[in-house]
Specification:
Elements lengths: L4 E6 L3 H12 L1 H5 L6 E5 L15 H13 L5 E5 L7 H8 L1 H7 L4 E3 L5 E6 L2 E6 H5 L2 E5 L3 E3 L3 E3 L1 H4 L6 H9 L3 H10 L4 E6 L17 E5 L2 H11 L8 H8 L11 E6 L11 H6 L3 E3 L4 H16 L11 E3 L8 E6 L6 E5 L6 H15 L5
Helix pairs in contact: 1-3, 3-5, 9-11, 13-14
Bound molecules: iron/sulfur cluster (SF4).
Iron/sulfur cluster binds next to loops.
Length: about 375
């Protein structure tokens, strides 16, 4: 697998999708040594189940363990340190990852209990889990979701769970962005398997999950996080830690030239299981048999419009989306190839959140005297 490759698959069968991505990436050939110490790093920032939008799917973790065992890897470890104030052990249990680990005889490490090494990362000194530093290969399994301070959170920030609580507090004091980027210069992700099934709209602790029905694989954490930014309606340059990590040579934020390998398109229809916050955004949508991934991208774009206080423009003139609008015409705005008969239609199947946002801003500009 090349650095510029991004493997994406859509669907709802987490186990099958995980396997597809691992097979395509040929993960086993990246590690090669059967005695390598392999660390699997999920995101268990809080003790909540996966459907809260906060934590990594246990089904994905189990599929990774199965794959590694089948390929003869013996020294596996799942490691995590939840955020300051929550219990990692409880998170292992509540998330279902403890059960998956027991099934494959894989130990769990709460990094809060580990010994730490003080490591120089550029101009900063950081307290990092000794076990994490001793690993030969890290499989980083973050969740595609929002974050109240950094806008998004993904692969680069997920490694924060390998530090002491004292260092986590220090990172927050320093504003997160720069330390996250520097952390990734000393602790490297060998492979990133991003859980994009059902992350939170804007908070890392969950509560407003948006089913996005996708899993992403890559070897460049900066590129994978740039995909996350795009999926949430941001350009990578808007996320400061992505920009800094790119400048430090951790990876590339050139999402435009990424080689996207889409394994499976999915047309699972959207299900009305959304939180109140997401329902408020959906008031600007008229949906008829919309695919879940397409609907989720529109929700993310509308959330960005709301950030700019522009959502009001689509309260009276909502946006049409879904296969039910195929072959239909209309004077309004449509989202996705199914609505290409509409006066204004966002291209793509599904269109990216950034593309949707761009078209919606143009539409607002068209109607007002001040184009964006
Ligand atoms: S454009 Fe239509 S078919 Fe394509 S993802 Fe959207 S709703 Fe589904």
């Amino acid at each position: 697998m090349e650095k510029q490759d991004l493997i994406v698959t859509y669907g709802t069968d987490a186990a099958a999708m995980t396997r597809q991505v691992l097979d395509k990436a040929d993960l086993a050939s990246m590690i090669s040594d059967g005695n390598a110490k392999i660390g699997i790093k999920p995101n268990l920032v809080v003790a909540k189940p996966h459907n809260s939008g906060a934590t990594t799917s246990p089904v994905m973790v189990e599929a990774v363990l199965r794959y590694l065992r089948e390929h003869g890897f013996k020294q596996l470890l799942i490691l995590e340190g939840s955020w300051v104030g929550d219990s990692t052990k409880k998170a292992f249990s509540v998330s279902g990852i403890e059960e998956a680990a027991e099934k494959y005889g894989v130990p769990l490490l709460d990094t809060k209990d580990d010994a730490y090494c003080r490591v120089q990362a550029g101009p900063m000194e950081m307290e990092i889990s000794k076990t994490a530093l001793d690993l030969d290969f890290i499989i980083n399994m973050p969740v595609l979701k929002g974050h109240c301070q950094t806008k998004i959170t993904g692969a680069l920030k997920n490694l924060k769970g390998c530090m002491s609580d004292r260092e986590k507090r220090h990172f927050h004091l320093l504003g997160l962005h720069r330390p996250i980027a520097y952390l990734n210069t000393v602790l490297k992700s060998g492979f990133i398997l991003m859980d994009g099934l059902c992350g939170d709209l804007d908070f890392e602790e969950g509560g407003n999950p948006v089913p996005m029905n996708r899993i992403i694989g890559g070897v460049d954490p900066v590129l994978v996080d740039s995909y996350v930014a795009e999926a949430m309606g941001y350009s990578p340059e808007e996320i400061e830690y992505i920009k800094i990590a790119h400048e430090l040579g951790v990876g590339s934020c050139d999402i435009i030239h990424a080689n996207r390998i889409v394994l499976h398109h999915d047309h699972v229809l959207v299900r009305p299981l959304y939180s109140r916050k997401v329902q408020l955004l959906s008031q600007a949508i008229v949906e008829k048999e919309a695919c879940s991934a397409c609907y989720a991208n529109l929700i993310q774009a509308l959330a960005r419009l709301q950030d700019k206080h522009l959502l009001v423009h689509f309260k009276q003139q909502p946006i049409f989306i879904g296969q039910g609008f195929k072959g239909k015409t209309g004077d309004g705005v449509g989202c996705g190839a199914c609505t290409q008969g509409f006066r204004c239609s966002v291209p793509g199947c599904p269109p990216a959140a950034t593309t949707i946002l761009h078209v919606l801003l143009q539409e607002i500009g068209r109607k007002s005297a001040f184009p964006f």
